[in-house]
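Moderator note: this is an archived Q&A kept for reference. The question asked for a predicted structure of one protein chain; the sequence and the answer are reproduced below.
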Amino acid sequence: ANEAMAHATTKGWKIAVAISDHSGGLVVFRRMDGVLSITTEIAIDKSYTAAIMRRTTKALAERMTSSPDLTMGMANRPRLVAWQGGVPIVENGVVIGGIGVSGAAGHEDAECGEIALAALGLSSS
């Protein structure tokens, strides 16, 4: 979370960061001053989604656009988010959690998550 926030600071972005375990349970949450409350909730949900779906929230969005049935089904599931900024945390090929970042543009949120993972020698795939 600290790495994601440090990167956002260098870019002038204000973000919230959530980290979930493999089952989507929240284990870490941080936010910068001035972040809207809805942003905090979205970061938590991005983290949850990346952890339980075992893929980035961007990949989930791309998958959903290819299937109207999937889009309808996912839209009825609470907490699932298909906006960029949620990335799974992968260690030795196993998803061990998810990181969700919200507050900047979607690709910037995802960038913060990926930077944080790389700093720890982890990846999202």
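Archived answer notes: The chain is about 45% helix and 20% strand.
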